[in-house]
Every structure is written in C-alpha cells, then in structure tokens.
Amino acid sequence: MKADLLTPFTNAACQTFKLLLDVDALAEAAQGVDGESDQSNRVHVAIGITGDLTGEVLYRFPADTTLEIVKTMSGMEFSEIDEFVTSALGEIANIISGNAVTDLSQMEIVCDILPPEILGDGTQARSNETTYAFTARVNTSIGDIEVLLQLQS
Amino acid sequence: MIWKEKYKIGVPLIDAQHEELFARVTNFVETLRSDKEWDEKVNSVNDTLGFMKDYVVTHFRDEEAYQEEIGYPGLEEHRKTHQDMVSYVGSISEQYEQNGFKEITMQQFAGKLVTWLVNHVVADDQKIADYANQEGK
C-alpha cells in the first residue's frame, strides 16, 4: 500500500524530535489528500526524492513551533523567522528525510534526497505530476507538524 | 547552545572536545546574533568563526583516531560524514569571502551548523559509545 511509504518519514520525524529536542511526538495514520487545508503562518520545507521513488516530501511547521525548535537547539531566543531559523529547519528536514530514506532502503526501496528548499508562507501542494499524495500529522507538545508525501508513478 | 550531560559518550578526551566545540560554536552564534549592526560585529564574527573552524578539524581528527583505536566498524561512514561537513564549511567560507562577507551567508551557515552539530553528537557519536560499551572498550 503506497500510504505505507509515508510511515518511515513520520517515524523518523518522531525519533528526531525525541533525540534532538527531548520532545515526545506521535504520528497519526496516513491518509489521502482531500483538498487543501489552511497553510498560512507555517514554514514549509520541501525535499526532493529520486531513485526507486520520485517526488518530494513536504514538511509544514507552524511558525511558533519553528521558533521553539530553534530555541531548544541553540539555547537562544528567536522572535522571527529569519535566515538562521529557516536554515536550521531545513537541516532538521534533511536529517528526518535522510533517516527515512535509510529506513526505506531496508525495505529494498533505494532513494536519494535533494537539498532542502524553503518555500513561502501559505504554500500549497505544487507538483503537477503527482500520482499519489498522502499526508499525516505528527503531534508534539510544541505543535503539530504536517508531513506530505507526493510521488509520481 | 546548551551542553548537556547526556551528550557525553564516556570517553574523556572526546567529551571534553565536544564541550569545547559547543562553547566555540556558542561564542560564534552569540556574536553573530548580537543586536549590533553588521559593520560593528563582522570582525568579531570572523574571529569566532576562525576559532571554531580550527577546532572542528582538530576534534574530527582526534575522534577518528579514537575510532581507529577501538576498531569501530562505522569508521569509514563516520569519516565521510566529517569530510562532508569540512567540505561544506570550506565552500561556504569561500562563498562568504567572495561575496564580501555578507551577513545572510553566515546566518544561513550558523543555523545549519547548530542543527548538524546537535544531531551529530546525539546520534552519530552515540553509536561510537554504544559500540565501545558493547565491546567492553
């Protein structure tokens, strides 16, 4: 089932939150994408996927959650989403995706990831060639992250 | 950055170096994030960047020597992770000099560095500790 391909990404997100931030996280079950939810006031990080799977994974972080993540890692206060913050968040998405791809390889699905791309506020799903799209929320005490996997056939 | 006891891997030399590395990165980031205008702080940023970069190379070398000493099977993969970071630091430094020391380059670099370092110490380096404990080394 294609929706299962999202599980390594949500599991990796939970593990990364625990390891880097000491924050417990719980992933909801994957579901199909049915219309677009309100994506304002969020930071979006897209990571391209190549190899046995082609497409991208999109992480949607609430702005407040983003600032809390960077504060926890750096020990410093941040009041706005600037270049430091988006770069730190891009690296978090890179770490999550790298771990997910390692997990996929154990299922004999071999993929690479591309460098993270920070997308503007209010970004909607953008791939025109998407055949499969699945989404799941990762619930944490500092806010809920949305993970969206879009794949071409 | 806040150094935590749980980051320790149980090898005094490596733990001391990690703590020093966190201190140098913190010094760099605090200088970079201070309220001063860029013109006023760029020289201090460049100095702290230099101290931090020198120490990264020393630390990576010593950590790889320790892995070799205990026969750590993940050495080559770990060495590649170090090499990739050194290569990234080299290329961003070159870009920074070529673009005339622009602040945005350093802000982007520092955000990635902080995240990378925390992950490297809590994930990659902990695997060395797990192996050493398992093998009784």
Which features does this protein show?
A: 153 residues, alpha+beta, Chemotaxis protein chec, 3 helices, B: mainly alpha, Four Helix Bundle (Hemerythrin (Met), subunit A), 81% helix, 0% strand
Account of the 3D structure:
The complex is a heterodimer of chains A (153) and B (137). Chain A has 153 residues and is an alpha+beta fold. Chain A is globular and about 45 Å long. The mean pLDDT of chain A is 90. In chain A, strands 1, 2, 3, 4, 5, 6, 7 and 8 form an 8-stranded antiparallel beta sheet that branches. Chain A has helices spanning 7-21, 63-74, 83-105, and strands at residues 25-27, 31-32, 42-51, 55-62, 111-113, 117-119, 132-140, 143-151. The longest helix of chain A is centred in the middle third of the chain and has 23 residues, at 83-105. Chain A has a single domain (2-151), classed as CheC-like (Chemotaxis protein chec, 3-Layer(aba) Sandwich). Chain B has helices at 12-33, 38-69, 75-98, 103-135. In chain B, helix 1 (12-33) packs antiparallel against helix 2 (38-69) and helix 1 packs antiparallel against helix 4. Chain B has 137 residues and is mainly alpha-helical. The longest helix of chain B has 33 residues, at 103-135. Helix content of chain B is 81%, strand content 0%. The interface between A and B is medium-sized, with 20 and 21 residues.
